[in-house]
DNA sequence: GCAATGACGCTCT
DNA sequence: CAGAGCGCCATTG
């Protein structure tokens, strides 16, 4: 690891808290890590991981309920699928997971939409 | 120090 | 349900 440290550690710590047999999105991890709206950093941190990691990174998927590794066509994508299936998480043929069923969420977390709305959204309630 | 990249999210079409 | 557009920001070259 070159530097990173704090930000990465936060993300890793959050990922470790993900209960087995459940999946969560990068956005959720980012929020719980204090990086509201910075889901990218989560993916970036996980990309820095390597083989032999004790982190359940396979439980972290994107908000679309898809395995992000499929997106980058990585060989690890298959590994993620196998691991999830082994935990009881059914993955669709297209690499999709039912977030409504396995999605892990917390109540006490800031909403990232707040930021998005203030950015350039005009349809206020 | 600047420019480009990225395991993403959300809304609209 | 799928695709396209826009935003946010740290890491890397």
Describe this structure in words.
The chain has 125 residues and is mainly α. The chain is 44% helix and 3% strand. A two-stranded parallel ribbon has the order 1-2. α1 packs across α3 and α2 packs across α3. The longest helix is centred in the middle third of the chain and has 12 residues.
**What sequence of helices (H) and strands (E) makes up the elements?**
HEHHEHHHH
- Order the strands across the largest sheet as they lie in space: 1-2
The helix content, as a percent range, equals 40-55%
Largest sheet: 2 strands, parallel
Would you count the extended β strands for me?
A: 2
- Helix count equals 7
Q: C-alpha Rg, in Å?
A: 15 Å
Core attributes:
125 residues; two-stranded parallel ribbon; globular; 7 helices; DNA-binding; disordered C terminus; mainly alpha
Describe, in short, the structure shown:
By secondary structure, the protein is mostly helical. Helix content is 44%, strand content 3%.
Secondary structure layout plus pairing:
Blueprint: H1 6-16, E1 24-25, H2 26-32, H3 39-47, E2 60-61, H4 68-71, H5 76-87, H6 99-102, H7 113-120
Parallel strand pairs: 1-2
Helix pairs in contact: 1-3, 2-3
The chain binds a DNA duplex (13 and 13 nucleotides) through helix 2, helix 3, strand 2, helix 4 and helix 5.
